[in-house]
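ok so i was messing around last nite and threw this chain in just to see what happens. nothing serious, just curious
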Amino acid sequence: MRHLVPAATLAALAGLALGGCSRDPQERYCETVEHHQAALTEVAASDDPGAVFDALDAYVDLAEQAPRDISDDWAAVVDPLRALERVLAEHDVDPSDYSADTPPGRLDDAARAEIEAAARDVGSEQAIDAMAAVEQHALDVCGTPLSR
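result:
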C-alpha cells in the first residue's frame, strides 16, 4: 500500500508536466496578449511620442510567443523600433523630446539623417501593415484587441 501513494503522486505530476509542455502555443500567445493589454492600452492613449518605447518590451514578449503565421509581422514591428531606440540612444536623444522640425542643435546632419531614416522605417508601410496584421490576428484568433 505504501508504494501506491508515491506511484499515484508520480502519475499526477507526470500528467501535469506533460500537460504544461503540450500547451497550445496559440493559447499561450493569447494569454500573453491579455497580459500586456492594459500596458499597451496606456501606450496607445499616450500623447508622448516616446511612449511607443514603453511598449517595446511587451512587443518583444508577444513576438517571442507569436505563432509562426504572424512571427514575421511581429519582426516587422519590433525590429525597426529597436533600431530607432538604438539610434536615439547612440545620439543621447530623448524620444519624448525629439522633433524632426526642431531637432536638438547639438546633432550634426549625419545624426539627424540617421534618426530620420530609422523613424521612417518605424512608420513605413511594411511596419504599419505588420502592426495592423498582428492587431487583426489578436482580434480574430484571441477574440481580444492588443489594446482597448
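not much to say yet. The CA atoms of residues 59 and 78 lie 7 Å apart.
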